[in-house]
Amino acid sequence: MKKYFNICLLFLFTAISGYTTFDPVNEKKSLPDENTLMDIAVQTEFLSTLVKALQAGELAGTLQEDGPFTLFAPSNGAFDKLPSGTLQELMQPGNRQRLKEILNHHIVPGKITAADLSDGQTLKSLGDSNLNVRNKGNQIMINGATITTLDIGASNGVIHIVDSLILSRR
Questions:
Q1: What CATH number is given to the structural domain containing 89?
Q2: Which pLDDT score, from 0 to 100, does residue 169 have?
């Protein structure tokens, strides 16, 4: 019985000492990195047009940075609403600056969750435009674009999916 008690005591001591020397900083290094806003966009099929546009507009790197950022991500359907040929024209290298300006209207500095969005609120985008928040019933709109999916968390911010492109309002 004494031998059993000593083994249990040794086990308990080892478990406790191991627990108290746990180093979360070093332990985190061995865990896989969390997905950035760009990683999530790349992995989301219905954001494939946005990914191509971000790459063409040279903004993919911005969404990999520490942030935090809030991305109002237009779905593929949002891009489909553009007049025929508009997207292809914007994706041309000569129109890179214009494409970048449009996409910057969809990115806001800071992590803004649905709980942070209130009716009448104005947000300032990276494109230096005003984004006006409207709450109508259980719908949240940003400059007329309806948020269809809220609060997709990322390591460097949050994504809200919108059903149309956000137009500039200065």
A1: 2.30.180.10
A2: 57
